[in-house]
């Protein structure tokens, strides 16, 4: 237990901050994922074949390639890509991107592919009459999507989005390879300096279980709220 | 880009070995725990539920690290015959993957068992077939067919999961890709080649499952 003490003698506070970091990365990645999903879901549902192709390319590639490989691409390729863009604008200094940004972008893109599939499924299960009614009422495309379809879709999407959240939360453990100090990285450091890997990795597992358990409870509440009246 | 291809192809063999070993063992583990889940004894039931909850609620990376770095720390454990297996990173990875995929497989099979219509089992009973034969000859084949789509997804997830073997020094496809990236600093090219190989495997698995689904569907 003294290994978990707060302050200089134990790893309690370090692991606490690491847990906060995991939560922060997960939430950022989830939001980045929503952003990508909002771009790619309309593409996947579009009438135009080329737009479909772009949407399908994104979800197929990201869901078919290991998360770790995507993270390595961002970790090793990220600053190179930014520097290339900067060089176009005449900036030639070395640019280093923060591990938090690289990590949440990489996980966000992965999470976005799953969210896109969830949104697509939810939109497709909305009654066609809703689209037609909105059209008849003369609501423009933008209004149709944001005011009519999106609110209905969210209710249908929440159970599946909670799966995406779980996947995203667990995927953040992979960012530890880039050196960002979240639960996994902190446990690795603690295990290395105390030579007690069994304890620290088991404790990390408990922390992840706690996070998934608490978030499930919260999502269930949200789900109950959104299905009011159904 | 061309030079890295043979190296990556060689590493693909490691990935495939890891995948097939963990899927075969994982199927047995999954079936075993699915049967426990259907048991009426509340302790057995809860034990099986706890297993699947823990392994599905924690990242695969933690599981590998506990098995590879953690277990070796126990002095007594190192004197047992099991140490022969657990000192090899390859087998540690296979064991972690097996337990992980076993947890997901048990959930898939359990829900498949539970969706079998009672009428089918009753029909078997009224024909005088013993419970054991009903289970092996009627429930299991139906459950397998029903769980094929979900299991196909699990295979693809597991294939991606094998990439974590690279974190315990195994040179699988991702491990070699990372090594090439960090020596040549050509992340995009290597990503395209390695990602392409993974996508190709996904494509093959997807089509095999589709074929099996068609073969075992009701209407064929």
Provide a descriptive summary of the structure in words.
Chain A is mainly alpha-helical and 230 residues long. The longest helix of chain A is centred in the first third of the chain and has 34 residues, at 12-45. The model of chain A has no long low-confidence stretch (mean pLDDT 88). Chain A has helices at 12-45, 49-64, 67-88, 99-124, 128-136, 141-171, 183-194, 197-226. Helix content of chain A is 78%, strand content 0%. With 220 residues, chain B is mainly alpha-helical. Chain B has one domain (4-215): MetI-like fold (Orthogonal Bundle), CATH 1.10.3720.10. In chain B, 81% of the residues lie in helices and 0% in strands. Chain B has ten helices and no strands. In chain B, helix 1 (4-38) crosses helix 6 (89-115), helix 1 packs antiparallel against helix 9 and helix 2 (42-57) crosses helix 6 (89-115). The chains are: A mainly alpha (230), B mainly alpha (220). The A-B interface holds A 60-61, 63-69, 72-73, 76-77, 80, 166, 170-171, 173-174, 176-177, 184, 187-188, 191, 195-198, 201-202, 204-205, 208-209, 212-213 and B 53-54, 57-63, 65-66, 69-71, 73-74, 156, 159-164, 166-167, 174, 177-178, 181-182, 185, 187-188, 191, 194-195, 198-199, 202-203.
């Amino acid at each position: 237990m003294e290994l978990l003490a707060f302050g200089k003698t134990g790893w309690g506070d370090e692991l606490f901050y690491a847990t906060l970091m995991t939560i922060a990365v997960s939430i950022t990645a989830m939001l980045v994922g929503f952003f990508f999903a909002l771009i790619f879901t309309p593409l996947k549902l579009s009438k135009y074949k080329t737009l479909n192709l772009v949407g399908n390319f994104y979800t197929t590639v990201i869901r078919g390639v290991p998360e770790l490989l995507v993270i390595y691409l961002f970790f090793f390729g990220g600053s190179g890509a930014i520097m290339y863009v900067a060089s176009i604008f005449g900036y030639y200094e070395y640019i280093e991107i923060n591990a938090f940004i690289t990590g949440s972008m990489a996980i966000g893109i992965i999470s976005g592919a799953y969210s896109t599939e969830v949104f697509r499924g939810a939109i497709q299960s909305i009654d066609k009459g809703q689209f037609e009614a909105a059209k008849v009422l003369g609501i423009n495309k933008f209004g149709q999507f944001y005011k009519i379809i999106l609110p209905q879709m969210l209710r249908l999407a929440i159970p599946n989005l909670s799966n995406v959240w779980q996947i995203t939360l667990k995927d953040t453990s992979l960012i530890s390879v880039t050196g960002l100090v979240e639960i996994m990285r902190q446990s690795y450091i603690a295990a290395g300096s105390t030579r007690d890997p069994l304890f620290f990795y088991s404790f990390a597992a408990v922390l992840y279980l706690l996070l998934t358990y608490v978030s499930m409870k919260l999502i269930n509440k949200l789900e109950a709220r959104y299905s009011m009246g159904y | 880009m061309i030079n890295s291809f043979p190296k990556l192809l060689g590493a693909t063999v490691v990935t495939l070995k890891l995948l097939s070993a963990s899927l075969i063992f994982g199927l047995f583990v999954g079936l075993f725990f699915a049967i426990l889940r259907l048991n009426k004894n509340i302790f057995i039931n809860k034990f099986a539920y706890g297993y699947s909850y823990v392994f599905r609620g924690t990242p695969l990376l933690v599981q590998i690290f506990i098995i590879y770095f953690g277990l070796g720390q126990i002095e007594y454990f190192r004197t047992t015959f099991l140490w022969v297996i657990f000192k090899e990173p390859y087998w540690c990875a296979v064991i972690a993957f097996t337990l992980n995929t076993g947890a997901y497989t048990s959930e898939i099979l359990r829900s498949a068992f539970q969706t079998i219509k009672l009428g089918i089992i009753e029909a078997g009973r009224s024909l005088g077939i013993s419970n054991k034969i009903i289970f092996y000859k009627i429930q299991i084949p139906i459950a397998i067919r029903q769980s094929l789509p979900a299991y196909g997804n699990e295979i693809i997830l597991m294939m991606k999961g094998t990439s974590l073997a690279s974190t315990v020094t195994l040179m699988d496809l991702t491990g070699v890709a990372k090594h090439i990236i960090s020596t040549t600093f050509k992340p995009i090219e290597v990503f395209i080649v390695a990602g392409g190989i993974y996508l190709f495997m996904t494509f093959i698995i997807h089509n095999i499952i589709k074929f099996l689904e068609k073969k075992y569907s009701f209407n064929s």
